Amino acid sequence: MNQHEKPALLPTGLRDLLPPDAGAEAALAEALLARFAAHGYERVKPPLVEFEDSLLSGAGAGLADQTFRLMDPASHRMLALRSDLTPQIARIAASRLTRSPRPLRLSYAGEILRVRGSELRPERQFRQVGFELIGIGAGAACDAEVILLAADALAGLGIEEGLSVDLNAPTLVASLLDDAGLDAGRAEPLREALDRKDATAVAEAGGEVAERLLSLLRATGPAETALDALAPLALPGAAGRALAALTDIAALLREAAPALPITVDPVEWRGFEYHTGTGFSLFAGGVRTELGRGGRYSVGDAGADEEAVGCTLYLDTLLRAAPAPPAPRRIYLPYGTARADGAALREEGWITVAGLAPVEDPAAEAERLGCDHLWQAGGARPLAAADGEEG
Known about the structure:
Elements: H1 21-38, E1 42-43, E2 49-51, H2 52-55, E3 69-71, E4 78-81, H3 86-94, E5 104-113, E6 125-136, H4 140-156, E7 164-168, H5 170-179, H6 184-195, H7 199-205, H8 210-218, E8 221-222, H9 223-230, H10 237-256, E9 262-265, E10 275-283, E11 292-299, E12 306-314, H11 315-321, E13 330-333, H12 339-347, E14 351-354, H13 362-368, E15 373-376, E16 379-382
Parallel strand pairs: 1-5, 7-9, 13-14, 13-15
Antiparallel strand pairs: 2-4, 3-4, 5-6, 6-12, 7-10, 8-9, 10-11, 11-12, 15-16
Helix pairs in contact: 1-4, 1-11, 4-10, 5-10, 6-7, 7-8
């Protein structure tokens, strides 16, 4: 096929966002950032690309297989296009803001690009909006602040029907498998069986750790029943600490927001590759993929780590989940309308569309350009009430 035959064809997973969706997405982002700012989260703006060895270290190490690389013609070093914003915020906290008082509260918005999409999220480029609480202690109050703010911000967008939080312990299964001494050959089939929620396969491949894994698998579900099922489990070492942290966070959430549905999936780990503590995902009714996710992770180099917890929301999903905004009032200003009249209308909240040349029927021109009002005889007239003469 001639390479110029379809010049508008885009690569798989990429798309143009057109009116009114592009404007609606931008408005959602600004509304979220304003809500985060009201809670003390200050905005930062990292670059789209960084040196590969910087972007893919620390929290970014788990994203290497989702990251595009290219050669920098200036430095002749390899660059990486970000596939997630959180590692960049971690870098800023550990370098540019090392002297800033802790805890740091930072927010951000920006496009990310990934090597491939998933079955539920085929998009490879989309916009993230999020916030990070960095330089914190081990208490569950920090995790609860982030989850509650995320839920509050989504409710502020009108996303309340079916809004729920799913709590996970990404390190729990790995800790149990390590304690049992399972090598990669035996551990990977177990992880896959847990992902499929296949109890039979877990029982067959789990060996001495099978019963503990099955107990975790059976506990998946609403927090009310899941926490009761998890309470009697006596898990060793890091696994026990991970389960205790999840339980403490769930208790705080239930106390602070008793109407917020909470589910627990203690064996979920995919998508939480760089997390070192409790993770969470946010869902809404009628939307099959998550609105966002977050959790606890480490910031900085080994030996100088800080604890952090954050949340990233996905604007493409929020655009589908949020109620459609009210249609804006658009008014057509016939050619020759005084500039002061247009300025006054915009101050009142109107969107003005100015005519660039005289037309025979201004009302028809207003309709053609998507306006619902016409400036006529010194006032805003609904199109149904406007006449067709030049005003």
